[in-house]
Amino acid sequence: MNFKEKKEIRKEIGMLFQGAALFDSLTVEENVRYPLDMFTEQSYDEKRERVDFCLKRVNMENSNKLYPSELSGGMRKRVGIARAISLNPRYLFCDEPNSGLDPQTAILIDALIKEITLEYDTTTIVNTHDMNSVMEIGDKVVFIYEGLKCWEGSKHDILAATNKYLNDFVFANNLAKQIKINSNGTN
User: Fold this and answer.
1) How far is CA 5 from CA 12, 14, 19, 90, 184, in A?
2) With contact defined as beta carbons under 8 Å apart, do 81 and 21 qualify?
3) Domain 3-138 classified CATH 3.30.420.150?
4) Long-range contacts for 36-43 (Cβ within 8 Å, ≥24 apart)?
5) What are the domain boundaries of the chain?
6) Alpha carbons 177 and 161: distance in angstroms, whole number
7) pLDDT at 177
8) Rounded CA gap, 6 and 126, in Å?
9) What would the pLDDT profile of 149-178 be if each residue is shown by its tens digit?
């Protein structure tokens, strides 16, 4: 593919990185506008309108002039989501969207990803170790073990799955508790 063909495909993809990957030297507005500057010929006013819309969509309105260092981890993730949806992508890739977040903020981020996926009819792929996220927002689940697809099904199929590797991962905490209980000789 030549550069122009790659650019056309890239416009269809939104990315939410594990650490949000915001540019520290750019304001929130400039971070969200970045893909619009790269991939569109819109006027400044059109871009500003889209930035404001995306920031409002993730409950970050009036944060345009702030810098990433002035934001909490959850706020940075929401700005990352705003940037990821700025081009209204067909595909949204999220790498560990809840990494480093407290449980309440993680739930908010999951809900936001789910809402945006449904609202924009986006195909969203979430790479995560967080089973709460899987059960909350996953429709189709693919379990990767040692770099290979080991199991595939719906979130509803997980509890009845017979795959040893999947069960070891999903039920690891329960297994550890059971081992500890058994080693103490109590039930």
Assistant:
1) 12, 17, 29, 16, 63
2) no
3) no
4) 36/86, 36/87, 39/7, 39/10, 39/11, 39/87, 40/87
5) 3-138
6) 21
7) 44
8) 23
9) 999 999 889 888 899 999 888 877 555 445
